[in-house]
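Minutes, methods subgroup
Present: GH (chair), OT, SY

1. OT presented the first of two proteins processed in the latest run. Sequence and structure tokens recorded below as shown on screen.
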Amino acid sequence: MNTDGSNPQAVGIINNAYLTYASLNNLYTVQNSGGWWWQPDSGVQRQHSAVYKFAIGDGAPSYRAMGRIDGWLRNSFSLGEYETVLHTATTERNWITDIQRTSWVTQNHLINLRESSLGELQVIGESRGFGKDETIQSARFLGTRGFIVTFRQIDPLFSFDLTEPTAPKLLGSLEIPGFSSYMHPLDDTYLLTIGRSGAGNNFQLQIFDVSDMAKPKQAFVYSPSEDGYSYSAAEYDHKAFTYYAPSKLLTIPVSQGYYSGAAFSGILAFRVDVNAVEKIRLLGGVNHGDLAVEYFCGPAGVDNLNCRSYFYYVIPNRSVIMADGLNDYLYSISDIGIKANLVTDSQGLPQLNLLLFPSQAPNPITIIDPLPLGNVVF
């Protein structure tokens, strides 16, 4: 359809797809076998996924092909199209019964598909059975390279050569505590990831050096020093992960410190520089707890210690980075309001303005002087 909503053109099929992935020219939807179809020959439902392909170039969309693969896919990053090949990463967990045992067996597969002239997505190459008894936590396909993280008690990062789609090669692996749930390419050499620490109490940022695909290395790791518990929405929602490459600036929503009495719910900003000794450096944080006090307890500064408990009720959601050529500005967004801060290396994140959402306050504070708009990153 046109951006004004006119001239809609549609195509549809009947299925129960739950996951979508789009490349420049094609849209894929995925339906797994959980509760939707039955394995007729064995009496035991195996884990399969049906993949449907639609063309979404110029003109009306059109249905192209369908295929079926072993295992289930975690999210849209478990698929990646390069040229005519669709790469997929699946985890297959099946109930196995033999003479010696009856148990669940978990294995992971990288499966390549290509559309045939008969309207089928045919399997043309596979790398099967890696990460035994572990499940895929994240995947990223970058041209002729693929990276997959599995997890049970340790975090194996697997690297694949996809140059020959009919024979994908598992080149190397790295095992470290914890796991990565999202991978973001910094360049052809480094991956920036977010996930959980080995103990599982805190979120964790890592940089991996993948210049040697046969020997991926952990180049740096950042995890909060807080002894309690911390988490970030960016661990499970990549839209909460904001990276502005020109300034090497990463911002993520974080909640932490509730058990130590130093509660924080807001946005943390990091400088990410692979050439520095401290490759992930915390610049500072924008706490939205005072907005919660303003909303729940009245004007800021009110003497009511019980209001401090309302830090729990702030939900940091998103961050937006704007640049005017001279400075970077961070707009942090929670369910209660928005703050605008200047990003600096020496002075932290000086606050410039804030806004309480009208639905959250009878007399909201408004942004008086809007900051100049430059490159906007959502």
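2. SY then presented the second protein from the same run.
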Amino acid sequence: MDGGYYLIGLQRDVPELFDGVAWGGDQVLGETLARAARVAIEFEMLPVLRDVDTVDDLVAVAQDCPGLQPLVPDTAAKYFHLSNKPLA
């Protein structure tokens, strides 16, 4: 949802897909797809998923997956230090 991606599976090492990528920006997916096209890699897109960078993201994911709701307080405390600041 934020311009990145959550999974890449490759049959061979393709370092040019990742070397010099400006990680964390909203252009990561677009840049990676352009690089894949330049080296003739075929790809399939998986469903869009929400990134979990903030407590608000965590709460939104838990709203969509009620089984996760009991985990939110401990997860927020452990990984987000009860703040809404991004992890990176």
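Chair's summary of item 2: The longest helix spans residues 28-38.
Next meeting: continue with the remaining queue.
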